[in-house]
């Protein structure tokens, strides 16, 4: 080799790190990866929103998430815990196991377009009023970012995605926890759409639900009323007694119901009626105690109306077990990411939808802020609670909805199908990816979280689900 050629080769070799460094830096930056996948986040979120599939019926939604992960090299195990729409996707080997939860079920009985005014869709009878389309899409993007970071850096470890169906009243994660699917997980990460950005250490209410079914005797309501025994009377008598019971419960109690069957014609005494109940409290044992009183009310109602009653427990969730060691770090990661920034068009859309909130409206600027850290009691319920008793768990909320929005509202459906919702999912994906990377790198953090977790559960802890040993209610939304 001539000296001039050799010098040129050495010069090229010397500059190679400068040429490849930007590409490597992006591959090793989870936030940059998430930003690069913004199109995927919005596409997946929109598709899940369009389908709006109900719990345990999310066949297309779960397939979409599985296909996206498989295309990224994840190994997919479908149909886990005897649930056809539940799955686990994993990438990596050795090292810690970090889980990211992904939900994707919609709510029945609520329909709305992505318009900022009330506009039900005639051909849709369900909607993503809790933003689970954003949940699934954001978690997908976060997991892909972490996978690429593991691959680029050569860090040992496994990133695992849990596709968790039927959070809305079906307790999909409870069956997965009961099956031991989280037993080898070091930490689980989750998020939820909301009207604010927060990583506060917020617990939740335990809850249990059941359908109480009354059986009576049909007869002509005018010609032969003495021959009939109204199943609807049984439902109404139960509801009256439970409503009186509310006065004699503790402050954190929540009881609500809906009559799902009550007859078809006033002149036909109904021989079948059904009421669907939820009971909630911050203490799982208090839910169990309240439940005994609920069952006694049902039995008394049947006795007093000459009907028969049976009931089927549909779902049950333990309260979230807060892990301060993890929550404080998640708060720091969320602050590093920041909140949601509206374009001028998005701000105009948000201003219009905010006019429907009345006194509940909040400044639109709060979507770009992160709420102060603290420990609070949330009055919702989630099957993430059972995961949090199986492994150290941490979560956050991101402002995928306009400030002032309530969950389970048409305004939540609208924002979940809008670019504002996708931006909230991106914020969550960035924070979760940063949190996962920190957990892979930081042995001390994982150890501290595990120590706090073990202390909170106690040495004699035995897992007890609030739904007993029943099989998943795969048809409860049919």
TrEMBL record:
Pfam families: M20_dimer, Peptidase_M20. Residues 1-27 form the signal peptide. The keyword Aminoacyl-tRNA synthetase does not apply. Residues 209-301 form the Peptidase M20 dimerisation domain. SUPFAM superfamilies: Bacterial exopeptidase dimerisation domain (SSF55031), Zn-dependent exopeptidases (SSF53187). The keyword Metal-binding does not apply. This is Amidohydrolase. It comes from Qipengyuania benthica.
